[in-house]
Amino acid sequence: MNLLRSWIALGGALSPLVLSLVNRSIAALWLLAAVLLLRLLLRRAPKWVLFLLWGLLALRLALPLHINTSLSLLGSAPVPVNNAGQVEYLQQDAAVRKPQLVLRSPVGQAAATLEPVTIDTENVVCVAAPQALLAPLWLLGAAGMLLYALISSLRLRYRLREAIPLETIRMSGKAHLPDLSADSRIFRTAPLAPVASVWPPEGFGLILFGLKGALRRRRLRRAERPEDGIWLSDRVDAPFLLGLFSPRIYLPAGLEPEYREPVLRHERAHLCHRDNWWKGLGWLLLCFFWFDPFLWLAWYLFGRDLELACDERVIRTCSEGERKAYASALLSCSIPRRAWLYAPLAFGESGIKTRLRAVMRGKKPARWLILPALLLVIAAAVFFATDPLGAVNGSAPVWEQPLLSPELDTAVREAVLNQGQKLFRSGGYPTEAHAALDLQAEGEDVVLWVQYLYLELSWDGDMLTETGAMRTPARLRFQRTGEDFALTEFWQPGMDGDYARQLREQLPDTLPLSRADSQEWVMDMTRSCYAGAAEHFGIDTDALCERLFTALETAEGEDMREKIHRDPLSYRRLLYLGSYSAHWIIARFLEPDGQEGLRGDLLWRILSELDDSLGNSGAIRRETGGLYNPTGQLCFDAWLKNEVRNSEQAKGLPWMEEHQPIAAMALRVSRGEA
Amino acid sequence: MSDLTMGLIETRFAELIWAREPISTGELTALAQRELGWKRSTMYTVLRRLCDKGLFTLEEGTVRSRMSRETYEAVKSEQLIDSSFGGSVPAFLAAFTRRRKLTEAEVKELRALIDGLEEGRKK
């Protein structure tokens, strides 16, 4: 059970990232389609133009940057755009944000509770969205790919230990062996494991582990000055370029000497273009987007384009005879087709037919195509690489919380209380609080979306306990006659796992799911409910706060954090009692003897949670003499003396009552007023 | 006997041993380092591989060859002709000469060789 919990927790944490990646990869599909099309159209153009497109695709995927224009062709299908400007093909499931522990109320209806208490497990249902379950899989995939890169890099390096510099061969003249090299396959090298010739993974592995080695080799090279970093090895079948910082060219030892020259020119072209880096970065991108099959296709085609570009560069300065030699070398070095998956910048890999044809044709790339090609690239960028604007009215919707008239507010209150009492019959006192989300008028009717909290609280003279809770968005429909509102419909999503889907179906365009399900009002609503109950039962809130605080203070544990951990219930209840707690705490701090040690710290901690404008601000730090860990009492005194008084002078008490209620309360209490 | 084919680099290493055998491992390490730029562990790996093929032995820190250079060449050619030409020398020659014409001198040499072999058979 614990494993599942941690998995879901991990999934919950990863889910926004994975979602963003998935959405980005879907959005990038448009650009990819454009790139594929343009590749075909611009076959005759110089190859570097294509790499502008590839770079564009890479940036689109890698950067969480969104340029929203009306020109974007992504907008041709109606899709939601979130606040960051990203198109949300897949939206985050409501339950992912906080997989809530759900408590079955006495009536047998599942309800959302705010108290993370330890309850007997048969009453607990863990509500977690599929997204939270799948998200860790992404992490496994990405980690797997990185691991693969590392391992294959190590294996390749091990295999290449026996390589020797080309210079050694050249210097010592011809080998004494009979030259049966009419067919290079006679020189059978040790069979390569399927993961041999793995390059960008290897090059990537170099980033992670080989940096030291690479630097050492660089120093070595400079010292000994062997040729250009060209090495021979028995253990490889095809020539390739390896390494990021001091790349080496590896040739198979059995390569016919007459093929060496064309091969080297090709590999040097790769070196010139820094293809080892581009491919490495591409692999890194692929690690993040491994789930996207289209991207693997793009990867394959990207590799082919790299090779074609090198061919083009070499051919440019070749005579016909040299071209023939190059083509023969290409043919003789062609390696099995499977190698495209992980082939390094090998000489004879993918798309051999295309390359041979291009080489033999020997046509120079069409210069006149450059300008139209660039225009097409820019067009692709504008139409396919930008994000569309929001759905309604061509502009991203800005959400504003609607204001309810007192009559409407009361009507909502009644409706919610009725609804709640239909579902709960716990015997507690029913309270409710709500936050308006969206208000639309439809002729005579008013359609209102709210998020409400229905809370039933019971009081046994000693403690206030929640006996039933429900928090959910809901849609209310009222028929309006003058200033009166009559409820005609009350809809809310079911709590049986279909929650998110139902909500999404019913929500209007102007109200995004993230807003409807937001947690931002939870605390306020809860406090409002508790305040209502406190009034109803006529509770002596000071005494209640005292009891709760004492329970917390005397809980097991050495420090504040442990105590809160041991008795989370008391802690939360103090927070829910909002201004009552604040009042009581302030009174404690203003007592003549003050509050010492842990008690003071705990009191300050709770007070600062009640009002987050508190905290270790600069003024407080100055006053407490720059102590690393000032006591609660010191903090309070500093806060009262500086911030609160300053605020009063600057803004006045009425303003503070509105915007800084806790501070205003502190002022009043300190002056002996209520 | 296992496949005796050696790559170009392995061959150079073998040549080093054949030229100086018997040779101590210490010397061989230094030699490999100088000529090929290999580390000790690399040298040992390749040496072990060649020993497994039956070409050399390593006893008490000394490397000796188990077959001479010429024997090696002969066995290798045998293996080549067996695997690629079904053991038929004429087939091999036919293939060989399809691209490279034999010179006068080579024809003479061949004739002499065949005559010698025939004499050997008659006896």
Provide structural commentary.
The complex is a heterodimer of chains A (674) and B (123). By secondary structure, chain A is α+β, with helices and mostly antiparallel strands. Chain A has four domains: 2-135, no CATH class; 137-173 and 183-361, no CATH class; 406-532, Nuclear Transport Factor 2, Chain: A (Roll), CATH 3.10.450; 540-670, no CATH class. Chain A is 53% helix and 12% strand. Chain A is built from 26 helices and eleven strands. In chain A, a hairpin with a 4-residue loop joins strand 9 (445-459) and strand 10. In chain A, helix 8 (257-273) crosses helix 11 (320-332) and helix 21 (578-589) runs antiparallel to helix 22 (597-610). The longest helix of chain A has 40 residues, at 2-41. The two termini of chain A are 51 Å apart. The relative contact order of chain A is 0.08. With 123 residues, chain B is mainly alpha-helical. Chain B has two domains: 8-69, Arc Repressor Mutant, subunit A (Orthogonal Bundle), CATH 1.10.10.10; 88-123. In chain B, 69% of the residues lie in helices and 8% in strands. Chain B is built from six helices and three strands. Chain B has helices spanning 8-20, 25-36, 40-52, 69-85, 89-99, 104-122; strands at residues 23-24, 56-59, 62-65. Chain B has a three-stranded antiparallel beta sheet. In chain B, strand 2 and strand 3 (62-65) form a beta hairpin. The longest helix of chain B is centred in the C-terminal third of the chain and has 19 residues, at 104-122. Chains A and B meet through strand 4 of A and helix 1, helix 3 and helix 4 of B.
Distance between the termini of chain B: 30 Å
Q: Which class do the helix and strand fractions of chain A yield?
A: alpha+beta
- Beta percentage of chain A is 5-15%
Number of strands of chain A: 11
